[in-house]
Amino acid sequence: MGLKNWLEKKIHNLTMWDFSVLKLALIILGIIIGAYISVFVKQYIWYFVIVFVVAYIILLCRVFKKR
Fold this sequence. Notes:
Order of helices and strands: HHHH
Low-confidence stretches: none
Oligomer: single chain
Number of helices: 4
Strand content: under 5%
C-alpha cells in the first residue's frame, strides 16, 4: 500500500470536526508566523502556540488512531 492510498484511507475517516480542528491549527500557525508583524499577537504569542499545539495533537491522534 502506497503513501497516497494510506492518506486517502485516513482522510475518508475524518469528520467535519477534524477538518475544523485542522483549519484552526493552520490559522493559529499563520497567526504565529504573522506575529513578527503585529504587536498584539506578540503579546499573546504563547497562548497562540498552546492552542496550535493542542489542535495539532488532536488532529494527529485522530489520523493515527487505529480503528
